């Protein structure tokens, strides 16, 4: 199976010219998002290769022995897999697979993009490269490259269990949406091919607005990482909610000054984007009634930033989320004290390498100097 991105159609071939290293999609990054999307593409009939570092490949003992399975926390019947027998053909440490592929999906953290750019450049990649990453300005930060950069917004959450060798969608499958930048020539053809997967893919011309909308929803990351508790328990404590609300309000003011009206990535996000701050500041019973269903399947789940701190990784994506708000605020003359403090505390936790700081909601309120009028709600 191969794909012509320029004309947007599929054809079958069994010629010897298709070597074992040729692929329709090469996925760089076999974590939660990359793993789920890669399994979905594989099960849809595409020729997929996961490109991982040789040292990482040897460390994937559970994948090598069990394969990789995609699940959904809200649907016990959903199950898609790359079997153990298929792993040697699907997982590779050889960058040669990049040279003949039709499309590359980058599912690493933003902190790895310098290395990813070098890898793609060294391999002579000239096909479209979709970045399944958080934050803004991916194309701008990469600079001049020979390949087409397709930015995207991933509006779904996946948790990887390395021991069980599973990647689990932590929301209903019908709410899993991937949005591609409508200004990129390859976006429509890529979206057309992804119709065959359970992930809804959209193309949006007003893409920066969608990115900003997703960034507002991603503000949960830093507060969750500093709390050290699951997303559900965190949001059920009013002080955590007040800090989160304050960080979002700063971001909203910054985007307004930048001339951007944030747009929801999906229908399920539209309600949250419009009312999230109000709900975060509302009494407990109101918040529970309004948001309880949205948290279905995510109760004990953690944000990726929280997982990074727990795994003692040297860097999180805080500079690409809260840090982006601080950067834009500085450029537009908008003060961002709460986000500045959150960035500082997450970076201190990164340096300490002791996991999540386990700060209480009250401690975060005090550290970020969230107004006492909010704490009394």
From TrEMBL:
Its EC number is 1.1.1.169. InterPro entries: 6-PGluconate_DH-like_C_sf, 6PGD_dom2, ApbA, Ketopantoate_reductase, KPA_reductase, KPR_N, NAD(P)-bd_dom_sf. GO terms for cellular component: cytoplasm. The keyword NADP applies. Residues 26-162 form the Ketopantoate reductase N-terminal domain. Residues 206-349 form the Ketopantoate reductase C-terminal domain. Signal peptide: none annotated. Pfam families: ApbA, ApbA_C. Keywords: NADP, Oxidoreductase. GO terms for biological process: pantothenate biosynthetic process. One of its GO terms (molecular function) is 2-dehydropantoate 2-reductase activity. NCBIfam families: apbA_panE. Belongs to the ketopantoate reductase family. This is 2-dehydropantoate 2-reductase. It comes from Noctiluca scintillans (Sea sparkle).
């Amino acid at each position: 199976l191969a794909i012509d991105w320029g004309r947007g159609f599929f054809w079958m071939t069994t010629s010897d010219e298709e070597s074992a290293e040729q692929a329709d999609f090469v996925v760089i990054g076999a974590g939660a998002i990359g793993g789920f999307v890669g399994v979905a593409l594989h099960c849809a009939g595409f020729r997929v290769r996961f490109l991982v570092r040789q040292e990482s490949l040897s460390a994937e003992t559970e994948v090598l022995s069990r394969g990789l399975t995609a699940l959904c926390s809200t649907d016990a019947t959903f199950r898609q897999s790359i079997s153990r027998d298929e792993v040697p053909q699907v997982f590779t440490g050889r960058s040669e697979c990049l040279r003949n592929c039709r499309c590359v999906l980058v599912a690493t953290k933003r902190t790895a993009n310098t290395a990813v750019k070098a890898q793609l450049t060294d391999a002579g990649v000239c096909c479209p490269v979709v970045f399944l990453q958080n934050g803004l300005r991916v194309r701008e930060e990469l600079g001049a490259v020979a390949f087409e950069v397709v930015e995207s917004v991933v509006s779904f959450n996946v948790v990887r269990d390395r021991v069980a060798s599973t990647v689990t969608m932590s929301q209903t499958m019908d709410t899993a949406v991937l949005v591609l930048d409508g200004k990129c020539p390859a976006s429509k053809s890529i979206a057309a091919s992804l119709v065959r997967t359970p992930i809804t893919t959209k193309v949006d011309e007003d893409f920066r607005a969608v990115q900003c909308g997703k960034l507002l929803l991603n503000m949960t990351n830093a507060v969750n990482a500093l709390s050290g508790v699951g997303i559900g328990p965190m949001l059920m404590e009013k002080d955590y909610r007040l800090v989160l609300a304050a960080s979002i309000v700063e971001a909203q003011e910054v985007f307004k000054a930048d001339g951007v009206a944030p747009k929801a990535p999906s229908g399920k996000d539209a309600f949250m984007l419009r009312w999230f701050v109000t709900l975060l500041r509302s009494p407990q019973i109101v918040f529970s009634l309004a948001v309880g269903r949205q948290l279905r399947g995510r109760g004990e789940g953690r944000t990726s930033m929280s997982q990074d701190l727990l795994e003692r990784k040297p860097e999180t994506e805080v500079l690409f989320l809260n840090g982006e708000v601080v950067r834009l605020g500085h450029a537009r003359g908008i003060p961002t004290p709460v986000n500045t403090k959150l960035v500082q505390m997450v970076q201190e936790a990164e340096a300490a390498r002791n996991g999540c700081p386990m700060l209480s909601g009250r401690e975060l309120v005090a550290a970020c100097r969230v107004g006492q009028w909010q704490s009394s709600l």
